[in-house]
Design goal:
By secondary structure, this protein is mainly beta. It contains no helices and twelve strands. Strands 2, 4, 5, 6, 10, 11 and 12 form a seven-stranded mixed beta sheet that branches. The radius of gyration is 13 Å and the shape is globular. The relative contact order is 0.32. The mean pLDDT is about 95.
């Protein structure tokens, strides 16, 4: 059974950093591209980053390029979203995805 579980969200001030984690199980993690998406209140789901198998080709939405990174640790079956210089508009529930499967999400709130 494919399972994804996100963690690491929280309440931070503008300009802060957070590292989100997504622990995967139930599939051959290392061969799959992994995705991070987010959803802010009243808005549609937004793709923000993805990383291919092997970790050689990270991709980022323009809104987060230069501020977010998406490392993965295949030995730990985990993909991360390293965020920095968070802005109020980054506040959302963050999900990792593989295919049609996504986890329950982790809330990121950015407020002073």
């Amino acid at each position: 059974q494919v399972q994804l579980v996100e963690s690491g969200g929280g309440l931070v001030q503008p300009g802060a950093s957070l590292r989100l984690s997504c622990a995967a199980s139930g599939f051959t993690f290392s061969v799959y591209t992994m995705y991070w998406v987010r959803q802010a209140p009243g808005k549609e789901l937004e793709w923000i980053s993805s990383l291919n198998s092997g970790g050689t080709a990270p991709k980022y939405a323009d809104a987060v390029k230069g501020r977010f990174a998406i490392p993965r640790d295949d030995a730990k079956f985990t993909v991360y979203l390293q965020t920095r210089n968070l802005k109020r508009e980054d506040a959302a529930v963050y999900y990792c995805k593989e295919g049609d499967i996504r986890g329950p999400g982790t809330q990121v709130t950015v407020s002073s």
